[in-house]
Design brief:
single chain; alpha+beta; twelve-stranded mixed β-sheet; five-stranded mixed β-sheet; globular
Length: 261
């Protein structure tokens, strides 16, 4: 079957997009999805995302990690699918869509910048050397002084597969504080099983974790990731984080056709 695909990236976190509104893509074929994401033998991407019809919102987002398995929310993928939906004339400059963790609202700003509403965070677990929270995907956040030369893949894997998180595992974020409202971030992503150039739910988790642990009092935080810069803003109501927005670029890279059985 010949299928058109589209490649997008958000601060270096890259995705294959397929328009599956006709339900023609074999979405349960883990091997196929993994092979399409393979950087040597396939198109190459951190994940694959399907856009589908939804009866109550503008569209539905279905996200797969590069290991071929359907996964939880992806913040950068969520921003990119908004840009993709606009290119398909599904939306104009604002949208409401359904993802794995529920409803999301998003706005298209100037110069291809997308502001994506994330889920409220009502629970933040603060330990001596790390913070854990769920921003649509689970995230372990820890401060590291010498982040530039840190072995993110090896150390991230140790935490991801540790007894802390069991079989499901967690994404792992290593963070360096640059100023009160500015942090640098590197992320090990489960499902990719490697460091990625950016992680949107990880950036969101880091911003909230730094505020909850008293490292910043700011409600608008800049995060330098390996692929660029993101911004996270939020309001705090008692111990909950609401009106959480992840803002950054979403860029079309190329499109093509691929044949598969």
């Amino acid at each position: 079957m010949k299928t058109t695909f589209y490649k997008y990236e958000g601060t270096g976190n890259d995705f294959i997009f397929i328009d599956n509104r006709q339900n023609s893509f074999p979405k349960d074929n883990v091997t196929l999805i993994e092979s399409l994401c393979n950087r040597r033998f396939g198109i190459g991407a951190d994940g694959l995302i399907l856009i589908e019809n939804d009866a109550e919102t503008d569209f539905r987002m279905v996200y797969y990690n590069s290991d071929g398995n359907e996964s939880s929310m992806c913040g950068n993928g969520g921003r990119c699918i908004v840009s993709f939906a606009k290119s398909l004339n599904i939306i104009s400059d604002r949208t409401t869509f359904l993802a794995a963790d529920g409803l999301h609202h998003a706005y298209i700003l100037e110069d291809g910048i997308i502001s994506l509403g994330m889920k409220d965070v009502t629970e933040v677990k603060i330990e001596n050397d790390y913070v854990f929270l769920n921003t649509g995907s689970p995230h372990h956040v820890t401060l590291i002084d010498r982040l530039e030369h840190y072995d993110v893949k090896s150390n991230g894997a140790k935490i991801r597969y540790s007894d802390l998180y069991g079989k499901a595992g967690s994404n792992v974020n290593f963070v360096k504080q640059l100023s009160d409202e500015h942090f640098r971030l590197r992320t090990y992503e489960r499902g990719v099983e490697d460091e990625t150039l950016s992680c949107g739910t990880g950036a969101t988790a880091t911003a909230i974790a730094m505020n909850a642990s008293g490292k910043t009092i700011s409600h608008k935080i800049k995060l330098d990731v390996e692929g660029g810069q993101l911004e996270v803003s939020f309001d705090k109501e008692n111990d909950s984080y609401v009106n959480v927005f992840l803002t950054g670029p979403a860029t079309f890279v190329f499109e093509g056709e691929i044949d598969f059985d």
